[in-house]
Amino acid sequence: MLATQNMCVFGGGGLCRLNPSFLTSLAAPTTDTAKLIALTEAMTYKCGTYTDADSCNSDSRCSMVGGTCRSNDWGDARWYKGKGYCEGSLVDKQLGCLGSTSKDSCTGGCAWKTVDELSAVLARNGSPSEAAEIKRGLYMDILGLSIPGIEAQKNSGACTAAVLWSADFDAIVAKGVRANNGSQQYDYRVIFRAIQGDLVGNCSGAGTSLSRQADCTWARSNPGACASVGSYCEYRWISPSSGFCRAVDPLIDPQDPFYKAYREASNTCYKVAFSDCLSTGGPINLGVTPWETLLTTLPSITGGATEGTPSPAPKPKPTSSPGKKETAAPPPRRSMRSYPPFRRAPPIARKL
């Protein structure tokens, strides 16, 4: 007989959260969307069960950060080719160069930059000009692209697209400045519409990825405002009175039954009053799908890569369930970490 628990559980800060074991109450994921969601959340939960650095660091999927074990950033920006950026675009060139891990191998339209050089272009000094602020913002986005296992800190630098340091890139920045037209808000809806073709290309399905994400981000006030932007936006509750609007990840089918069940359950718990938390959503049956299945069923886009390296050897299946923290909910996360325009704080910026 399957064990049961509440769908919604108490979280930190006097808020209600979705029981992370909710994933095990669903049927085994069969689509790429379901597998991607299940694996991402299961890894987050699995790493969160480790309470000491030795246990955390012994699992290559996890790292100890500020005393808390967290899942590694295993998402690969290259998965988004044709969905978030186009072949032959500036972003495609950047990812092509990023795979080179030494100065000697960084050739053919690529340029090696040291950690100090990368840090300098990401730093915000004093009161920057409009052009300097937009240029820094674009560097944050583009240099935030990641390939698992490739880190500038580890390699004492990074191989980047040479165009990023050329007059051609300055011309893209100048186009963004003209679009911004002196606004102190730096409305990236307007800026990206003017320059996204120069960054991600103009192919069908990917050429508007930057402006779409900006559209959704700016519609953050309420679910109605978010829905009015378009079907490519979704609203996520983080408390009974607040939430945020974000673009649906291009790798996700928002109509996928597994995704819809997970997203609806999560929103249900996050927006309920603390006093009603345990009576909301009803009981769920745990173990319909074991954690081992969720942790080892890989979506086709990964090519078997979940270990934090470009081409990892498969790890053996876990020999136990995630542990005792079956009612502890993970903190809310705003987006899948590899989704374009990727991050406003790339790894090199966070570590310096």
How many extended strands? 10
Instruction: Determine the number of helices (DSSP H or I, runs of at least 4 residues).
Output: 13
Derived from helix and strand composition plus strand pairing, the structural class reads alpha+beta
Average pLDDT, to the nearest integer?
A: 85
Radius of gyration: 21 Å
Distance from first to last alpha carbon: 51 Å
User: What fraction strand?
Assistant: 5-15%
Enumerate the spans where pLDDT stays under 50 for 5 or more consecutive residues: 305-352
H-E order: EEEHHEEHEHHHEHHHHEEHEHH
Principal-axes shape call = globular
Order the strands across the largest sheet as they lie in space: 1-10
Outline the biggest β-sheet: 2 strands, antiparallel
Helix content: 25-40%
Give a description of the structure.
The chain has 352 residues and is α+β, with helices and mostly antiparallel strands. The protein has a domain at 79-196 and 341-351. The protein is built from 13 helices and ten strands. It has helices spanning 32-48, 53-58, 90-98, 115-122, 130-143, 152-155, 167-180, 188-200, 209-218, 223-229, 257-270, 291-296, 347-351, and strands at residues 4-6, 8-10, 16-18, 62-65, 68-71, 110-113, 158-161, 233-239, 242-247, 283-285. The strands form five sheets. A two-stranded antiparallel sheet has the order 1-10. Strands 2-3 form a two-stranded antiparallel sheet. Strand 2 and strand 3 form a beta hairpin. The longest helix is centred in the first third of the chain and has 17 residues, at 32-48. The radius of gyration is 21 Å and the shape is globular. It starts with a strand and ends with a helix. Residues 305-352 have low confidence and may be disordered.
